[in-house]
Design a protein that fits this description.
- By secondary structure, the chain is of the alpha/beta class.
- It has a single domain, classed as Aldolase class I (TIM Barrel, Alpha-Beta Barrel), CATH 3.20.20.
- It has 11 helices and 10 strands.
- Strands 1, 2, 3, 4, 5, 6, 7, 8, 9 and 10 form a 10-stranded mixed β-sheet that branches.
- The longest helix has 18 residues.
- It is globular, with a radius of gyration of 20 Å.
- The relative contact order is 0.13.
Length: about 325
Amino acid sequence: MAFPQTRMRRLRASDGLRGLVRETDLRAGSLVLPLFVSAQEHDAAGARAGRSPIATMPGVERLSLSETVAEAHEVARLGIAAVMLFGIPVSKDERGSGAWDEEGVVQLATRAIKQALPQLLVITDVCLCEYTDHGHCGVLREDGAVDNDATLELLARTAVSHARAGADMVAPSDMMDGRVRAIREELDSDGFADTPILSYAAKFASAFYGPFREAAGSTPSFGDRRAYQMDPANGREAVREALLDVDEGADMVMVKPALAYGDLIGEIRRSTRVPLAAYNVSGEYAMVKAGAAAGYIDERAVVLEILTSLRRAGADVIVTYHAKDAARWLAEQS
């Protein structure tokens, strides 16, 4: 029926009515906080390392192992679902061997968090870019291109080392073809058949990653990552990537970045039956922080609107640097 019988504003007239018919739920338990864990024991001045601010990401810091555990306690207190660990090693090499070192920074942090907080979920990023001296996500051929197939073994070895340390979930972000199958087979053969894989299935060669690369020290020393990360113009290819990863054994898939890719979050949600994550990345975070610092936007309102939009698009889980603030704001609303 049309107006005047139908009046859409009837169900918007009060907080109670709006809450009753709200279609999209945003809660702390659907958020994941990324953490940058540094193996550096002392800063440049020789002082004991603890928390090192990241200039392009206000409010985000590189954390020592002890401060990582302290941050995990805060995450658990706020009811946030999980932490996602990114390692910053002391040294790097051509193959990124620190990625699968049993005493590597992510492995040490995982063990420490799980010992202190057994119930808090720990997700580990599986990639080589933070550990290679050239900054690319795999080993290089003589011509400088990333060798896809030679990289698979190293990614699988890294994932197993994370599982052995106690990771609840491993998340390959490298965008090598076949890496989900390689990791699944290696996990299964090493006794970790119950460890799930969250695949960065549709990860785009995006301009939104700049602050992260400063934070993690993972900027390529030459070239770029467009030969393995996806072209931002391609949507059908993103769905195909997600479906391939599910076929290879991914338990969850992810779209990264999030804010400019809501259409693909929705399309992949409709095309798959596995849980779907969206990564609200560093550049998206930095833009909000800069706008709020300049007084142009209401940070709280904008953050909650962005996160709600990602849930509305179809994301079950949101990886976001806003997680702690969002969890506090959501608690105040309840």
